[in-house]
Structure formats: C-alpha cells, structure tokens
Fold:
Amino acid sequence: MKFCSSCGGTVSYRVPMDDNRERAICDSCGQIHYRNPLIVVGCVAERDGRVLLCKRAIEPRYGYWTVPAGFMELGESVAGGAARETLEEALATVELGHLFASVDVVDAGQVHLFYTGKLVGDFGVGDETLEAALFSEDEIPWDEIAFHSGKFALQKYFEDRGKNNGVHVHELRRSSS
Structure:
C-alpha cells in the first residue's frame, strides 16, 4: 500500500503506539491500515459416496482438480459463501453439513474453511471450471489436486466418512508442504 484509502495521502510503514507490528500509517490523516487474512470457503459435496471436484479454468493451478471453493464475500456467512462457491464453480446446489476442516495458509495470508455437504440435483461447469465430476476416494486424481488445503480437506473427509468428528486443523507454511 502506498496511498491512504481514506484521504489519498502517502503512507509509511511503522509500528503504531500500543501495537507490536509494522502497519501502513497515513502521513496526512494518521489512519492506520490493517492487513488481515482472507477467508477461503469451500464444500466437499457428496452423493452416493462420491465427491464433487472441479478442474480449474483459471490460474493459479489451471487444469488441476479442486474442491469447489473461493474467497468469502462481504455480507455473507461462512456457510453461505461455501454454498455460493459450489454453485458458481460447479452449478451445484448443496445441503450443507458441518464445518470439518480449517487450514491456515500462513504465507498466503489466508484461512481455508471447508464444510461437508450433500449434492442436491445436477451439477455442471461454471465460468472458472473446465470440467466437474464425481469421484470415489480411489478415483480421486490425488497428484492432480490443485492445493494442499483441498487435499487435506479431502483426506479428512474420507477419514471421517461423513461423521462429525469435529474440525480438523492444519497449518501450511513454505517450510511445510
């Protein structure tokens, strides 16, 4: 950030009084600009023991498979965002279950949250998707899963076999893959 979103003045980076880390502070109006993690929400949607995956039509990881997921929007709940992303990416309506996986992607400044879900009706290919398909656990192209967080969610989903075993938490950093 180079300019203040409140007044347009230039910002400099320093530690504000009563804080413990460097922040962007406007040199003109004194506004402190905080950067916080982004939330990614998704759903492992299942029908008859098979889960819905989408092949990405966008970067990053174009052509790789993923759990339907994306950035949460302002004005929606976490669950609402997971259902919306599933609809956008796979044209699929889901009956959401429970939150079952949380992944801190520290280096990307993101938190990924995954719900279980039951696929209701048909599915298809959204604007960000090349292909959508249902996979049993042994059919999943594990080496072609786009993101570590999605792979973690899928692994925990199949370990739980649909039971509510709480929320599985994982932290990803560059030094750990």
User: Anything to note?
Assistant: The first helix runs from residue 78 to 90. The chain has two helices and eleven strands. The two ends are 29 Å apart (CA to CA). The first strand starts at residue 11 and ends at 14.
